């Protein structure tokens, strides 16, 4: 893998964690005769306790615990300096420029003796984002402990910086992360030193980004007294609890409107929108990035648009990140005290609390986020209502997405729903089309009548929203990036995001992705890239019908046969998608004019033009896989190169004349070879061809999809 690919894939984590160093300090803890604060001003300052920190091992993953310490016991000692570069996996560290570090004074003391009086203390649990790490917000976790709240943070290995590009990346299920939080709580309760000072009867949960899903799901436990969700809110609370929702006005990763929608559905919640902030504002290193004026060192490697997304909320024209941290300390510490039943004095969560901190202001308090004048990425650009009869409502849409190189693009597609009167979140089926061709007129959303309406009708009747992307370049500007996995996955996720902008549709429920043929390829890439591209979406399952895989085998199977045209499409598509590839230089001169035919008709036209030509006569080389650049890109886009992140089913007819059934048998064994892969099964349909198998497996697909949204454990043939 090249340096550029690693940087692009993980730009957000590198940008957020690459910062200038901070000097080691010797801290003199505050001493006071009053063990608890009595008003909002006191929540801004450090509390009456010094803070100790310990690392405890919970089976295969560590967790951190910050706890109250008597100030005299650490007088004159140095507080811990944490360098976030050290949490990056060894695979990634070589690609970080050597002069970038991320040292933060945590204001806590390693392995200090716990306080012997003043307890027992209640508990807060912090759940980090993706990718992230347990020490990502010590400005808050240490602060809470200084105010008498023991705070734990588990390293969620499936979304941790420590496991990037390792088999553990993406391994955790959401339920695993919840279990880890309570497992950590039990461990400190049983600890010989921490146990006696821990009140494990009640706790407050705090989640950032993907961590908000963990916090929301954990509300089933009766010990949870309240939840604070930062830059998230895309998961409904399992059990309603007092909730504090904090959004960051200019968040380009998770739209503030998602949290607003959750706020409206709750009876006891507060919604705070902090002005001139972004997704990374609530991370320790954001003030350091801001001091540097951004991360100019990474722009040459990543490109301006990629770096901008990682600096989200941490540039010099954003609100002072240190001041925002102060404001978050007030709101979150006060909220924790309130729901945990600790003394709060005159504290009350109001908009006026922001006046206590200079250089930061609220954009809204219990008010909907302001719509920005510019169309944000993943928003709807055009929407045309179409007639779908008594089935419900339908729209032909154009929405914003991103290319694989981070450039804004427009993509077309369809959105269908029972009606526009949803009172609660609806499950979503994202349909990915089979191969229609490369010409714009082949886009499924442009067809009359619309394809597959009778197939998807049971989903609409059951209350689902159904979306279907045409994919990049099919129906809009540019060349369709056929069989380019990341491009397909972006199209799948971004049309779901775009559908959320349609009033009354409520496309906020669990997401299932299904596709057949090319759509099966796209669906698998969505299941393998979910946590990289759309961790805020609640993807619960992927169904792939007859997915292309084993590309060298597939090339031999298709060439000089009735479906040879697929191979020409892949060559032209990859040449358009990847600058280093030039398909025209491989085509014999007498056939070059025929490439223009790819955009003049759909599949029947392509087969008619290209199938009669002997494949060995069409190209100047015998085997395209012998060319290193082509081999690398083709291999990268096969469906056997990445671990599945969600439960997956492959559906395949044994008499498939286009994608041989043995390809899926091989694919199953290859995907099972990844350690800790999500559950996967292969369902075979004896005697059915490529197209006929869709009807054969449709009832199974409906049942499987319903099991995913209801939480039924998925079958796993890897065990």
Strand order of the largest sheet: 5-1-2-7-6-8-9-10-11-12
What's the name of the CATH homologous superfamily of the largest domain? Alpha/Beta hydrolase fold, catalytic domain
State the CATH class of the largest domain.
Alpha Beta
Tell me the overall shape.
elongated
Cα radius of gyration in angstroms = 27 Å
What is the fold-level CATH name, i.e. the topology of the largest domain?
Rossmann fold
In terms of per-residue confidence, which ranges show pLDDT below 50 for 5 or more consecutive residues?
1-37, 299-306, 372-377
Q: Mean pLDDT across all residues, rounded? A: 87
Counted beta strands? 21
Count of separate DSSP helical elements: 21
Label the structural class. Answer: alpha/beta
Instruction: Return the CATH architecture of the largest domain.
Output: 3-Layer(aba) Sandwich
Q: How many structural units, i.e. domains?
A: 3
């Amino acid at each position: 893998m090249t340096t550029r690919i690693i940087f692009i894939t993980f730009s957000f984590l590198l940008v957020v964690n690459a910062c200038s160093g901070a000097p080691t300090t010797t801290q003199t803890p505050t001493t006071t005769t009053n063990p608890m604060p009595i008003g909002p001003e006191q929540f801004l300052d450090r509390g009456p306790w010094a803070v100790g920190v310990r690392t405890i091992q919970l089976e295969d993953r560590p967790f951190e615990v910050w706890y109250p310490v008597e100030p005299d016991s650490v007088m004159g000692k140095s507080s811990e300096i944490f360098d976030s570069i050290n949490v990056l996996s060894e695979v990634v560290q070589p690609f970080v420029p050597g002069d970038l570090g991320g040292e933060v004074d945590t204001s806590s003391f390693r392995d200090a003796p716990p306080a012997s009086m003043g307890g027992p203390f209640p508990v807060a649990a912090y759940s980090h984002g993706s990718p992230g790490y347990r020490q990502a917000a010590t400005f808050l976790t240490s602060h809470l402990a200084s105010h008498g709240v023991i705070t734990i943070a588990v390293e969620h290995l499936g979304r941790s910086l420590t496991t990037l590009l390792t088999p553990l990346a993406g391994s955790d299920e959401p339920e695993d992360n919840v279990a880890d939080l309570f497992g950590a709580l039990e461990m400190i309760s049983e600890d010989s030193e921490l146990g006696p000072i821990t009140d494990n009867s009640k706790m407050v949960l705090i989640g950032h980004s993907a961590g908000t899903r963990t916090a929301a799901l954990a509300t089933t436990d009766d010990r949870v007294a309240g939840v604070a969700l930062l830059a998230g809110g895309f998961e409904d609370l399992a059990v309603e609890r007092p909730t504090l929702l904090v959004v960051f006005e200019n968040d380009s990763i998770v739209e503030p409107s998602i949290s607003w929608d959750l706020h409206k559905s709750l009876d006891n919640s507060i919604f705070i929108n902090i002005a001139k902030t972004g997704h990374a504002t609530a991370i320790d290193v954001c003030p350091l990035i801001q001091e540097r004026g951004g991360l100019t060192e990474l722009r040459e490697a990543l490109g301006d648009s990629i770096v901008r997304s990682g600096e989200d909320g941490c540039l010099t024209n954003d609100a002072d990140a240190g001041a925002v941290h102060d404001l978050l300390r007030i709101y979150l510490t006060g909220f924790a005290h309130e729901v945990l039943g600790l003394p709060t004095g005159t504290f009350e969560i109001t908009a006026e609390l922001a006046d206590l901190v200079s250089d930061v202001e609220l954009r809204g308090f219990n008010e909907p986020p302001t719509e920005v004048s510019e169309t944000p990425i993943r928003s709807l650009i055009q929407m045309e209502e179409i007639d779908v009869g008594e089935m419900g409502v339908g729209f032909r849409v154009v929405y914003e997405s991103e290319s694989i190189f981070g450039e804004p693009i427009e993509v077309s597609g369809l959105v269908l729903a029972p009606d526009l009167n949803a009172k609660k979140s609806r499950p979503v089926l994202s349909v990915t089309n089979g191969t229609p061709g490369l010409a714009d007129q082949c886009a499924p959303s442009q067809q009359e009548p619309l394809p597959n309406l009778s197939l998807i009708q049971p989903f609409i009747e059951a209350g689902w929203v159904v979306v279907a992307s045409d994919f990049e370049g099919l129906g809009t500007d540019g060349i369709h990036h056929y069989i380019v996995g990341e491009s397909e996955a972006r199209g799948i996720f971004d049309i779901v995001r775009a559908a959320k902008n349609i009033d009354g549709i409520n496309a906020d429920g669990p997401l299932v992705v299904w596709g057949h043929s090319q759509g099966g390829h796209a669906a698998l890439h969505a299941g393998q890239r979910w946590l990289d591209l759309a961790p805020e979406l609640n993807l619960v399952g992927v169904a792939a019908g007859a997915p292309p895989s084993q590309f060298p085998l597939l090339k031999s199977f298709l060439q000089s046969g009735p479906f040879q045209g697929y191979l020409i499409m892949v060559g032209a598509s990859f040449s358009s998608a990847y600058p280093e590839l030039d398909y025209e230089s491989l085509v014999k001169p007498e056939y070059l004019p025929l490439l223009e035919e790819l955009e003049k008709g759909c599949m029947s036209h392509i087969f008619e033009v290209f199938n009669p030509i002997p494949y060995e006569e069409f190209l100047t080389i015998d085997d395209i896989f012998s060319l290193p650049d082509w081999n690398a890109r083709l291999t990268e886009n096969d469906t056997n190169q990445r671990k599945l992140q969600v439960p997956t089913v492959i559906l395949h007819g044994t008499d498939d004349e286009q994608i041989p059934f043995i390809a899926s048998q091989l694919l199953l064994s290859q995907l099972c070879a990844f350690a800790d892969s999500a559950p996967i099964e292969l369902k075979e349909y004896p005697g059915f061809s490529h197209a006929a198998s869709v009807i054969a497996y449709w009832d199974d697909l409906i049942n499987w999809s319903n099991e995913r949204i209801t939480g039924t454990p998925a079958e796993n043939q890897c065990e």
